[in-house]
């Protein structure tokens, strides 16, 4: 249940002797090709947004305790460590006549839709097998919801990874930046759409979809996921794999390659990984507990519900307020993704080599190094988490979460771009493996797209004819090496903008450098981009396990028997006047809780987790500030 996690795989383009038929191409007018290729990510992000805003309160409304709810969220990191490597191996070796990615995308998207609908309709589905209101009904509903969470996370991680891989497979190296930029736009728009729709009172406007907010949301999200991927599958044509390389790497070899690379990482890449470790510690709770946190604040100042109907209405209000905060955060993140790249300084050495259009003087004065901007975002995030000490209103908490949208935009972009630059600027000799010269290569990458000959070949590659080419090997010509040289990387679907330079780096290093040079030094960083991304992913995923365990302990201490939300939820499809649970006991428990001053004035367990995340963000800020100073000196 996290967009953080992904394990990347890179094929050795120089030694791969796989044979293919046809050319990858995108149908339609030029202006619609990149949107058609990346629109599937919009559907993915809408579904992610629904789960992020509704999973926590819905599980609690079913009667699941907070500590067990935290354990359920292990689905996210587990899916990143297990599903994406497996789906990468399966897709890379698929010989389907429909392509390597699209068949698995269709299967994964269908499974995700089924799991999403099961999540929203857990109670009525459980009612088919048990008596509504009985303990067995409640237990079965909880188990179905938990099962659906795991199925959603596992399948949506597969869909997102395959969407990214399809982008890498389809576009030539110089078009990867534009493709990833469109992917970032689709993801940002998906976040805004998902959280905005979650804020609307859908049962009032769409009563035919269901009488509950969550039911309407899961139907809309499922339809969007299917429609967007149908559009991509129709518009994108893949090459067909007809024979695999006998020396192709398997999962075991990839894991060994990651370990081998881990022991020899250059200093700067190690620093980036350390920063990401503490950053992930800070971010994971915010992504999934924001709705519950704001819902608690709303209920503390709301009058106690007098009956079941009042409890349901209060639940709906609390959840929508949490979704509204996430919506504002998504808007800020979208704006930051569009605006902040203009405020990043380019190295003078690269600027001298690449003719650039003159900029306005004021823009040059406010530009900063990317690592400095990353450090600033971590500092702002730490301040936001510290502000939970003094914020006790829904409005204040909403403002804090909105500000974190700026930080989230930078976190998705900066570390991966710095990682790509480290790989690009690393010398190709084995003797220099322990040191790395870092420079800002972004301008150099942009200048590559100005090469007329390369543009002509890549345009032909992008809009190639429908006639299938004869079977060929990657090593038959330099043109085919350029066509196939970029790695098939199962990249991270939540680190959205930053994959751009990674994809370009491996491909361009394979194309620009003489083949005999890379073969002489197969351990160069450019040939290990996939392994480095896998290592980087480990530093992102492992903290999520730690946060889950810590959250369970904190919930067990401060909320041993409390459930934040009432026994009913806007996702509950059964009329409120029916015997859903032991309503008398529930109402007595609710009223006892509201009448107990110690409950309302006690420590907010989620706020405590946020504050600990702020400490981790402060550590990440210090490390990132040191990294920025080091990069400025190079």
From TrEMBL:
TM stretches of this protein: 31-48, 68-91, 103-122, 142-167, 179-197, 217-236, 272-294, 325-345, 366-391, 397-419, 538-558, 606-628
Cellular component, GO, one term: plasma membrane
Membrane topology: Multi-pass membrane protein
GO MF annotation, one: sucrose:proton symporter activity
Highest taxon above the source species: Eukaryota
InterPro entries, A to Z: MFS_trans_sf (IPR036259)
Region (Disordered), start-end ranges: 445-486
Broad class of where this protein is predominantly found: membrane
Localization per record: Membrane
Pfam families per UniProt: MFS_2 (PF13347)
Keyword field: Membrane, Transmembrane, Transmembrane helix, Transport
Coiled-coil features, chain-numbered ranges: none
PANTHER family attached to this UniProt entry: GENERAL ALPHA-GLUCOSIDE PERMEASE (PTHR19432:SF91), SUGAR TRANSPORTER (PTHR19432)
Name of the protein described by the UniProt record: Major facilitator superfamily domain-containing protein
């Amino acid at each position: 249940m996290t967009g953080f996690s992904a394990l990347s795989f890179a094929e050795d383009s120089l030694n791969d002797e796989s044979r293919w038929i046809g050319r990858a191409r995108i149908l339609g007018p030029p202006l619609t090709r990149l949107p058609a290729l990346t629109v599937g990510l919009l559907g993915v992000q809408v579904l992610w947004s629904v789960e992020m805003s509704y999973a926590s309160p819905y599980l609690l409304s079913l009667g699941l305790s907070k500590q067990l709810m935290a354990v359920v969220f292990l689905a996210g990191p587990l899916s990143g460590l297990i599903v994406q490597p497996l789906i990468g191996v399966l897709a890379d070796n698929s010989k389907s006549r429909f392509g390597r990615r699209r068949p698995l995308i269709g299967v994964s998207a269908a499974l995700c839709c089924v799991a999403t609908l099961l999540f929203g309709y857990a109670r009525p589905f459980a009612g088919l097998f048990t008596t509504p209101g009985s303990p067995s009904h409640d237990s079965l509903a909880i188990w179905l919801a938990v099962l659906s969470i795991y199925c959603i996370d596992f399948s949506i991680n597969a869909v997102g990874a395959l969407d990214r891989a399809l982008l890498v497979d389809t576009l030539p190296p110089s078009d990867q930046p534009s493709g990833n930029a469109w992917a970032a736009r689709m993801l940002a728009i998906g976040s805004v759409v998902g959280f905005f729709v979650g804020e609307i009172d859908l049962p009032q406007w769409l009563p035919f979809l269901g009488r509950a907010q969550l039911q309407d949301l899961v139907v809309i999200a499922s339809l969007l996921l299917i429609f967007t991927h149908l559009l991509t599958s129709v518009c994108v044509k893949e090459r067909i794999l007809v024979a695999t390389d006998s020396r192709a790497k398997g999962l075991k070899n990839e894991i060994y390659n990651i370990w081998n690379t881990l022991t020899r990482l250059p200093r700067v890449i190690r620093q980036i990984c350390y920063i990401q470790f503490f950053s992930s510690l800070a971010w994971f709770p915010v992504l999934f507990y924001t709705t519950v946190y704001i819902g608690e604040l709303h209920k503390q100042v709301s009058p106690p519900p007098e009956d079941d109907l009042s409890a349901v209405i209060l639940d709906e209000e609390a959840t929508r307020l949490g979704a509204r905060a996430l919506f504002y955060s998504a808007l800020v993140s979208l704006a930051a993704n569009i605006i902040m790249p203009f405020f990043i300084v380019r190295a003078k050495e690269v600027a001298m080599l690449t003719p650039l259009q003159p900029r306005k003087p004021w823009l040059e004065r406010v530009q900063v190094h990317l690592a400095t901007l990353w450090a600033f975002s971590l500092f702002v995030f730490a301040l936001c988490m510290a502000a939970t000490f003094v914020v006790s209103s829904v409005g204040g908490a909403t403002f804090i979460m909105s500000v974190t949208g700026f930080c989230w935009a930078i976190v998705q972009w900066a570390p991966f771009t710095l990682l790509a630059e480290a790989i690009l600027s690393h010398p190709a000799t084995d003797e220099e493996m322990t040191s790395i010269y870092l420079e800002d290569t972004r301008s150099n990458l942009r200048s590559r797209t100005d090469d007329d000959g390369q543009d002509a070949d890549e345009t032909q590659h992008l809009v190639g004819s429908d006639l299938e080419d004869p079977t060929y090997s990657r090593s038959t010509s330099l043109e085919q090496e350029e066509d196939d040289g970029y790695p098939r990387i199962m990249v991270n679907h939540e680190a959205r903008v930053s994959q751009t330079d990674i994809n370009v780096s491996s491909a361009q290093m394979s194309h620009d450098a003489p083949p005999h040079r890379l073969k002489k030094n197969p351990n160069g960083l450019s040939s290990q981009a996939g392994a480095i991304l896998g290592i980087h992913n480990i530093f992102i995923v492992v903290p999520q396990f730690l946060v889950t365990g810590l959250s369970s302990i904190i919930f067990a201490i401060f909320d041993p028997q409390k459930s934040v939300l009432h026994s009913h939820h806007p996702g509950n499809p059964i009329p409120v006047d029916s015997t859903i649970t032991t309503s008398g006991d529930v109402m007595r428990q609710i009223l006892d809780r509201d009448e107990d001053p110690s409950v309302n004035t006690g420590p907010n367990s989620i706020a405590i987790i946020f504050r600990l995340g702020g400490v981790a963000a402060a550590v990440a800020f210090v490390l990132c500030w040191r990294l920025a100073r080091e990069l400025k000196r190079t």
